[in-house]
Design brief:
242 residues; alpha/beta; Zincin-like; 2 domains; 3-stranded mixed sheet; 10 helices; binds zinc ion
Length: 242
């Protein structure tokens, strides 16, 4: 356990000290009087993740995104509570969750994160032309039917891995829509592919709303627009059968 000296007041706790203290409190070690584990902090070039914990052989390895490693102490403290609580399958105290979310939702923080993602984020693995479906053609078709003719076209591509859980996503950092390559198959009806692409196109049109600690991805306008898709119910049924 580290001992604070006069030159190192408690107000400037290191990340290691913060995580050791929070670990002791959450684990109940402090109450039992046992020593906290040895804590090692590492910086990781994460894209979306802000931190991960790894506990092995009495050492708690804390892997942090550089953005968080240099955030205000109260934010690092909040993340420590969130990550350590998760490690013990406990709920983090709500005020820490709120504080952390408020910080991550701050405009300057979002912009920094966006810039980091742009550099580090996944690069394109394939263009719009798949083995079976051409996303460019489907995009133009959907744009003509549902969107403004001048809506700027994003990059379109297929994912490297055929994910069943993430069928599509809009990557705002790269202004790109990626569809899971699981959809690029003759057995998948075109309507299902159209619906997934339509949903992601709506993300272009209806940006995420940030208010305080809240982040609304599917806004009221978004959901209303989604209902306009012809064959919505049918398409959703098709996707369930994948
Ligand atoms: Zn969505």
């Amino acid at each position: 356990m580290q001992v604070l000296t006069a030159q190192q007041p408690a107000a400037v706790e290191t990340n290691e000290q913060i995580f050791a203290r929070v670990y002791s409190l959450v684990s109940g070690n402090a109450a039992r009087g046992s020593d906290p584990p040895k804590v090692v902090c590492l910086l990781k070039p994460y894209v979306n993740t802000m931190g991960k914990l790894h506990l092995a052989a009495g050492t708690l390895e804390v892997r942090l995104h550089e953005m968080i490693a240099s955030a205000p102490a109260t934010v690092r403290e909040a993340l420590a509570w969130i990550l350590v609580s998760k490690l013990f399958r406990k709920h983090a105290p709500p005020h820490f969750l709120l504080h952390y979310r408020q910080y991550m939702n701050r405009k300057d923080v979002r912009h920094t994160h966006q810039a980091v993602r742009r550099v580090r984020g996944r690069k394109f693995v394939s263009g719009p032309q798949g083995g079976h479906y051409d996303l460019d053609a489907i995009y133009l078709d959907l744009q003509a039917r549902y969107f403004h003719p001048l809506m700027p076209k994003p990059l379109l591509g297929w994912s490297r891995r055929p994910s069943r859980t993430l069928l599509g996503h809009f990557d705002s950092a790269h202004n790109a829509i990626i569809l899971s390559s699981i959809l690029d198959r003759p057995s998948v009806p075109r309507l299902a592919v159209e619906y997934v692409l339509y949903h992601e196109m709506l993300h272009l049109k209806h940006p995420v709303e940030h208010r305080g600690s809240r982040r609304r991805v599917h806004t009221r306008d978004f959901l209303a627009a989604e209902k306009l898709f012809l064959g919505l119910k049918e398409a959703k049924e098709m996707l369930k059968k994948l």
